[in-house]
Amino acid sequence: MFTGLAFDTCTAPPLATMNAWRSTSPYGAIAVYVGGKNRGCAQPQLTAAWAGAVSSSGWKLIPLYVGAQPPCQTGSSPEKITAATAVSLGTADGADAVSKASALGMRPGSTLYLDMEAYNTADSSCAAAVLAYTQSFNRAVKARSYRPGFYGFASSSAADIAKATAQGAADMPDALWYAKYDGAADTTGSFPYAQGLFTGHRRAHQYQVNSRETYGGATVTVDRNAWDAPVAVIG
């Protein structure tokens, strides 16, 4: 578990940058894209050796997996959910997420965050397919002794997960990471759902995007997150 400021950026930075930022930036954790057919950036730095070195220097790592995306999503994605494939895709992607995280030295007990982009929540068949996929992904992750987390947008994907959780749906994520660009670096006052949901250090808030920042002479464009949630277990 980590509480503090975290950042995410499309490509994991070189070790020299991570070292420069460790002692000079306000951040204590970094989200890294461990896999998924819809992962958008190459990851030349992201190896077990990198993860081990970054972790040893004090950083916490947040694994993010960009799996299949909503059937009603605008634009093209290499992997999309359908009603017929939601469960099988979720099972396969959950297993793959664990495999990718394990290869980086992330041990059982790590929380793996499924990245689900925005969609039209009024499209009931689309929302149902996303929920079935997410539940199947979560079951596959839990079966391998890892923990499922979920990243989504406050007004769409994360909202549907919060709604299903409040209604008592099975196989929901252990932690919710919501994107709400209000500039508020917290997980309480900014939390857009019922205050009883995802309590006990199980919330994260992406509150600002595309911030170009320089620390220790190294510049990276990052998204900022207020973090109070589980992370990877390394070593």
TrEMBL record:
Domain Rv2525c-like glycoside hydrolase-like: 19-227
Listed InterPro entries: GH, Rv2525c-like_Glyco_Hydro-like
Domain of life: Bacteria
Pfam families referenced in this protein's UniProt entry, alphabetically: Rv2525c_GlyHyd-like
Coiled coil regions in record: none
Protein name per UniProt: Rv2525c-like glycoside hydrolase-like domain-containing protein
Organism of derivation: Yinghuangia aomiensis
